[in-house]
Input
Amino acid sequence: MARITAGVTTSHIPAVGAAMDLGKTAEEYWKPVFAGYEWTREWEKEEKPDVVILVYNDHASAFDMKIIPTFAIGAAEQFPIADEGWGPRPIPPVIGHPDLAWHIAQCCILDEFDMTIINEMAVDHGLTVPMSLMFGQVEQWPVKVVPLAVNVVTYPPPSGNRCWMLGEAIARAVDSFPEDLNVQIWGTGGMSHQLQGPRAGLINKAFDTAFLNDLTADPERLRRMPHIEYLREAGSEGIELVMWLIMRGALGGKIKELHRHYHVPASNTAVGHMVLEPVA
Amino acid sequence: MTPRNIHEYLAEFDDIPGTRVYTARRARQGYHLNQFAMSLMKAENRERFKKDENAYLEEWPLTDDQKEAVLARDYNRMLDLGGNIYFLAKLFSTDGKSFQFAAGSMTGMTQEEYAAMMIGGGRSPEGNRSIKEGR
Ligand SMILES: [Fe+2]
Output
């Protein structure tokens, strides 16, 4: 049977991808950003997941204003790398797992989550930067990916509670997939940042630290946090953190923190990264 | 919990200093502006736009205000006219500018001042959470 063995969260800052692609990771500015991922790269080599369910948001790359799906699951064999305005990142295409993706979609729909199914989709920095951070510069990605794109751009995005419940439904779906697969679920985006308007550049270390702590200490608080609190405290783009709750919901009741990394800044953003393990 | 009443939900957004939340109203107002920006994801469109910005903009049903804001690269004004930052990112990427440049340009700070603020830990949330409550 397939099983979710771990959860990973990370920011997915485009400049971080660019720093890797342009060979700048050893520069003083970038060193402390990347240092916190070294532990995870070694850990991933030992864990050898078969599939990653990668929760992210599309940043006006695959989805324009024509169609705005709240929860979209990618069921393609392969996902090309999006051209976000400066040419696609020089990384391999992302390989899907259509059997698992369709299985999750079907189960979630029967479980009363009305998923959108996407058969052709380019993936942007929201998905590819976490892949590069966790696996480095590779000829071929060592895992298959089920992309789960969440609308956090046009309001309202889904509530934290809804994200949590979707995570639980995804975990049930994975449990009932007959193939023996080591599955990880990643929640990406955040942490505090604001990219727009006169308040751009907002960073809230206290909020971010409490959010990281409460993934294990008080997840119920995070589950009930209203959108306005993310907006006020973590900046307009900090709302991406609701996506972490899909990951957290999928891990179930008790979890253990294996690794944590926090650094300010990378470009406009607070970098947050955690590795979590469900406790039986 | 996120309120279930849409009026209550939306009312709070205008109380955040220096922030435009991308609501349905803005999404409708900025539909063509954002779709124009989106078109710059294609290399051939970027080239045509760079060659003659006015002519390229004429192909889109934008208001005069929106066209002016694009030509002036006035990102705050584009946001006021319904632009969304992730869509507008295609515009500053076409110009070879970074997210940090664009974000900085909206704060009234120089690029150097903005970069220094970020290295110093970013803009504090103190006084930046609520207009009404001044906190
Ligand atoms: Fe993002």
